[in-house]
Amino acid sequence: MPSRFASTLILLGSVTLASCSTPPASDGSYERFMGLAADLQKRGDTVTAAGLYEKATQLPQAQLDAWLKLGETRLANGDARGAERAYQQALERQSDSAAALLGLGTAQLRQGKLDRAVTVLTQASAQPDQPQAFNRLGIAQILRGQANAAQAAFSQSLALAPNDLDTRCNLALAYALGGKPQLALDTIHSVVESARALPRHQRNALLISVLAGREKDIRTLGLDDISNAERKKLLAEAQRIQAIKDPQAQARELGLVDTH
């Protein structure tokens, strides 16, 4: 059953592509494809944008950015396998591209290729200033049942982006799964008390309280954005997850947050 804690397009009219058939390389077609695709992507039409980025990659003057953008839009369209291929092509052109490594690891993570994702995201996180890579590495590790490794990755992400409440939630969940209930509670309380806390953070606070064996403390949490009816449903879901004996199976139900 899908977890209620799982994270989370403007459709434009169809664009006629007949006039976009590949012209000679010298007439600026690459720039036109990239510019039109970028505009469509900004407006939410990632499907058409992906088609234009793919056309751009086939031109002789195609640059790294075309493959990166193709991977990005394919991910947005739910085509993780297609995104993986695009990012691999990007790495053929620049093997140390932090964006390509991050994208490839993310695509593999979404396909459940956890060992591959850990390898690639470890390489991505070794690049300067990569909090997203560390966060996604932590998600991959927790899904592999490696709570300590996940805690280390989330902590490193927070060292680079200390105000990221989503990553702080993920760290609290990793502490809860790793048998460190007090650290889990302390971490999630700092999230709930933030003026920037959103309903999804409050939902995670409820879950973590149950996982940490402190269900009785839920009434003291600031869960103002959750109705009583929803709270009851979330509590039942949290109790169901708590009853799962396999930590790795628990992790798959947790809904770790990656909103970037």
TrEMBL record:
Q: Show the PROSITE patterns listed in the entry.
A: PROKAR_LIPOPROTEIN, TPR
Q: Which positions does the entry assign to TPR repeats?
A: 64-97, 131-164
Keyword annotations of the record: Signal, TPR repeat
- Quote the SUPFAM superfamilies the UniProt record gives: TPR-like
Instruction: Answer whether the UniProt record assigns the keyword Signal to this protein.
Output: yes
Gene3D superfamilies linked to this entry: Tetratricopeptide repeat domain
Signal peptide as annotated in the record: 1-18
PANTHER family from the xrefs? CELL DIVISION CYCLE 16,23,27, CELL DIVISION CYCLE PROTEIN 27 HOMOLOG
Protein name listed in UniProt: Uncharacterized protein
Q: List the source organism.
A: Pseudomonas fildesensis
